Structures are given as structure tokens and as C-alpha cells.
Amino acid sequence: MKAMKFIAVFVALSLSMSAMCQTTAQLKAKQAKSVLKEKASKDARKEAKKMEKEGWKVSPGALPLEKQLDRAYMYALDIDEDMNQLYLLGEGKSVAGNYDAARMQATELARLEIARSISTEATSLIDNMVGNKQLDNEEAASMTTMLSESKTITSQKLGRVVVAVEAYRELPNKNREVLVRLAAKASDIKEIAKNAIREEMEKRGKQMSEKTMEMLNKK
Fold first, then answer.
1. Alpha carbon of residue 126 to chain centroid
2. Is 104 in the same domain as 132?
3. What CA–CA distance (Å, rounded) separates 25 from 153?
4. 75-132: per-residue pLDDT in tens?
């Protein structure tokens, strides 16, 4: 009898979970349809029209170009209550004999562009450290140079990035040109910059002051 009750409860829970999953999937599908029905912004429609005249198009099944551009604008304009940007964008273009190769190269170029933002953020933090007398000007210049020269390394440390725009066009010589725009969280960029400074200071055997530690640990 107990075994039968257990089986009945298990079946009931399974059916309930299945219904919840279906409801969630249906909700997501409705939200996706709603996004597609919404009209893209005027700027996005204008840029999409210009790009389409230049031969740019999207892969089958992807969001329309104007919708992708609209999404990129939304990331670029997303700010917090202190008017700080929440996302940073990077763009890359590349030409290759096939789509996948061009896309891979374009994606890496976009990541490298975002990596430049990491160097900029790190430079700002280093300037603060000079102001706090944690570093002298010569050490600060050396660290800044090192960080600016390691964009490839920092780009590999980027966490999850969002592909905001992905488009391609076929060139007269049959090669494919791919354009990719990526969005990365500004908070992730700042954290990578802080970690890069921590690692470099450890390499140089520098002890961090309380002020510097507080600055690097601040969210």
C-alpha cells in the first residue's frame, strides 16, 4: 500500500513538473514572438536599410538585421542608477573563403576590441594607485605598457559575451565577409582589469596597501 502511494505521489509530481516546464517553454515562445512583432527603433531601421543596400544579410533563422541592431543599441544605452554603462561593445569584421572561418576571426577581433576597454579600465585604476602613492610613475608606466600589450591574453579571460549582431555578405570574389558585434558586462571588464593588476603586482613582489586592496576589492 505504501509503495502504491509513493508511486502515485511520484507520478503526480512528475506530471506537475512536466506541466511547469511546458508552461515556461510556452511563455518563452510567446515572449520571443512578442519581440519579433515589436517595431525596431528608427535608428536601427535606418542602419539596417543602409547595410542591406551594401549587401549585408543574416543567416536563415536568425533575427532580422534591424532587430539585431536594435538589440545592440539597447546594450549600448543600458545604464545603472549612477549613469554608468552596464555593457561594453566590440565590433569585428573579417573576410575568408568560408563563413565559419570569417566568423571566427571577426569574433576574435570583437573580443580584442573589448579587451582594449580592459586596458583602459586598468590604466584608470593604476592612475588611482599612483595618486595613493602605491606606485611611482615609472612602475605605473611599465604596468600600463604590459597590460596594453597583453590584449590577446585578456580577451581570452573574458567570460560570457553576447552576440548582439551577426551579419555577412558575399564579395565579388565569392569570399565571405562577416561582421560581429559583441556585448560584455562592464562589471566583468572591471573585475578582469583588477585581477590583471593584482597578478602583475604579485609578480613584481609589490605589497598592496589597505587603500589599494579596498579599491581593487570594491565592486
1. 24
2. yes
3. 38
4. 999 988 888 889 999 999 999 999 999 999 999 999 988 888 777 777 777 777 777 6
The H-assigned helical ranges of 78-217 are 99-131, 137-148, 151-156, 186-203, 210-217
* Residue 8 CB-density burial (10 A; 0-12 exposed, 13-18 middle, 19+ buried): exposed
Q: Is 70 found in the same domain as 2? A: no
Radius of gyration over every alpha carbon of the chain, rounded to an integer in angstroms = 24
What are the residues facing 40 on neighbouring strands?
A: none
What is the domain range of residue 4? 1-38
How far is residue 73's CA from residue 93's CA, in Å, rounded to a whole number?
18
Grid coordinates representing 21 are 516546464
Cell 525596431 locates to 40
Residues 190 and 111 in one domain: yes
State the CB neighbour count (10 A cutoff) for residue 206: 17
- For residues 94 and 25, membership in a common domain is answered with no
Structural domain count of the chain: 2
Regarding whether 29 and 64 lie in a shared domain, the answer is: no
Give the residue among 106, 113, 111 at the shortest CA–CA distance from 167: 106
In this prediction the pTM is: 0.70
3-class SS at 70?
Answer: helix
184: β partners: 88
Q: Same structural domain for residues 32 and 94? A: no
Question: Are 183 and 108 found together in one domain?
Answer: yes
Q: Establish how many alpha carbons lie within 13 A of residue 13's alpha carbon, considering only the half-sphere containing its beta carbon.
A: 6
